[in-house]
Amino acid sequence: MAKVVNGKTVTSGQMDKVVNGKTTTEDKSLLKKIYQSIQQETSTPIETKIIGKVPTWLKGNLLRNGPGKFEIGEDRVDHFFDGLSFLHRFIIEEGGKVKYQGRFLRSDIYEKALKHQRLTFNGFGTPARHPDPCKTLFQRIFSFFKIELPDNCNVNWLKVGDEYYTMTETPLIKKMNVDKLDVLDTVNLEKIVGVHTATAHPHVGHDGTVYNLGTAMSRQCKYCIIKVPPSNNQNEGEDAISTASILSSIPASSYTPTYYHSFGITENYIVFVEQPLHINMFKVFFGRLLNKPMSHCMNYYPDAKVRFHLIRRDDGTVVETRYLADAFFCFHHCNAYETSDGKHVVIDMCCFDDDAVMMRATMESIRRGDLNVEDCWVRRFVLPLGNQTKVGENLVTMAGSEASAKLNNDGSFHCVPEQLCDINLELPQVNYADYNGRDYTYLYGVGGTMQTLHKVNVKTHQVQTWSSPGCFPSEPIFVGAPTKESEDDGVILSCVTNLADDKEPPYLLVLDARTFKEIARAVIPVPVSTFGIHGIFV
User: Fold this and answer.
1) Pairing status of strand 306-312 against strand 277-279
2) Strand 163-167's sheet: what is its strand order?
3) Chain-wide mean pLDDT for the chain?
4) 535 pLDDT band (50/70/90 cuts)?
5) I need a labelling partner for 334 at 20 to 30 A (CA). Which of 137, 156, 260, 412 fits?
6) How far apart are the first and last CA of the chain?
């Protein structure tokens, strides 16, 4: 299969040599530098140096989030997910000027860590090195009987109306002053809707309604669809998130709840995938006594089935049909939609065969330079809708699809996906404003060695690629042009950590989304690593 790399067409064999081969020793050495970078705060926005030309129509804020501090005093975090949050803001002004601003998130655990120069929190993969100095002995004993989660909101941003929030996978959300990158308040979803986890990937419907997914931990755990009405429905002085309610709840299929990082949405449905990586609540409780982090309380079951749940957006009704698939692990949904004939729901996901990527994200692995997603593939599942009675026959009638769904004797469907391209891809993005939840053509993401950006035509399977020696791009964000002449009429924005040599600064990359060619860089004149996780453009 031919592909386009930096504007040039290459064969699959050439592609392996150019961008998709195994990580070299040199690449691994560069990768380690990312986590040794000094994050220099810039509380006041500073000018960047523009190379090329930023489109004159592009105006707004690119907000990025991710782990940015891995050492506190003599302590080190053990897992990438536990790095203290560092926030990036690119202010793109009229006339193609770009300013940069970066600050650590002033979470409670950040303030305590800096004050006492040690780790006092129990993270996803990092046990607390020391007891919390702010707690009495009685408070510490009592805390063993309660799940306490850190407020290190280091994964994503959310905009609801005029309000901005930073998020992680706990119910604690930070309301932000976006101009100062400062915390205004902490919102606790557990107190509002009773959930103990929540994704950092909410969906915003085309009417402004925000949907999220959380788990309520109890003897019978359940998954809750969280709904936040459009911001114009809130009372004066009321936080937008405080108006959240539960649209629907689904009992967990097992006594141990599944782990999930994201979910899908279509015009009429919420798509939730119950996968075989489970949180063992027995281990969670005793892990508190033994000072074990959450990652030690998770079990992957390779012989278990994945279950797809469809929930109607209008009234929260859960579709009773059981859609099953062989085991896989997924962080990120790409997109989902219903076919025009109303017969299928299409779900595109970045899939791993197991949960090994979790261990590759430990700091021990990263310091060896082993972080990659070379076992992540874009797969499409197609779920048939309506009453079906033909046992054993493939009921996917979607034109051109290689996916299948066969009715079993027990009334469930066994779903087998098709692979949408032959390159590895993670951190997927689409033209969210116009095509999220709708039939789409173009998918963008980061390549397997974390050194490439890809654009995939999910209909023709053609792949276009950008790369630059020694550079590690972040999640690509699509921003549509006002002309909207096509789905890919716009630009791709990606923060790039440049490690070509020690003197090369990081930059904001601007690609023409149609040609996937570089049109500008906004070079940051201070030492920071922009290798974060997620962000938004507003």
Assistant:
1) unpaired
2) 156-160, 163-167, 172-177, 182-188
3) 88
4) very high
5) 412
6) 37
Nearest partner of 212 among 272, 161, 256, 172, judged by Cα? 272
How many beta carbons lie within 10 A of that of residue 371, not counting itself? 24
Tokens of 532: 């974060």
CA distance 426 to 430: 12
Distance of CA 370 to the CA centre of its chain: 20
Q: Token pair for residue 95? A: 């006339």
Q: In this structure, what token pair is assigned to residue 243?
A: 């108006």
Contacts of 295 (CB under 8 A, 6+ apart): 79, 124, 125, 358
H/E stretch holding 250: strand 245-251
Take residue 375 and report the two structure tokens written for it: 């076992």
Q: Strand 3-5 vs strand 463-467: parallel, antiparallel, or unpaired?
A: parallel
**Integer CA distances (angstroms), 50 to 8, 497, 533, in order:** 25, 16, 24
- Report how far residue 30's alpha carbon sits from residue 476's, in angstroms, rounded to the nearest whole number: 21
The residues near 381 (Cβ < 8 Å, ≥ 6 apart) are: 308, 323, 325, 346, 347, 348, 349, 403, 415, 417
pLDDT tens digits for range 362-411? 988 888 878 899 999 999 999 999 877 788 889 999 999 999 999 999 99
Rounded Cα gap, residues 435 and 477, in angstroms: 14
Helix (H/G/I), strand (E/B), else coil: 280: coil
Among 158, 155, 73, which Cα is nearest to 116's?
A: 73
Counting Cα atoms < 13 Å in the Cβ hemisphere of 418 gives 16
CA distance 418 to 347: 11
| Per-residue pLDDT at 504 | 79
The pTM for the full model equals 0.91
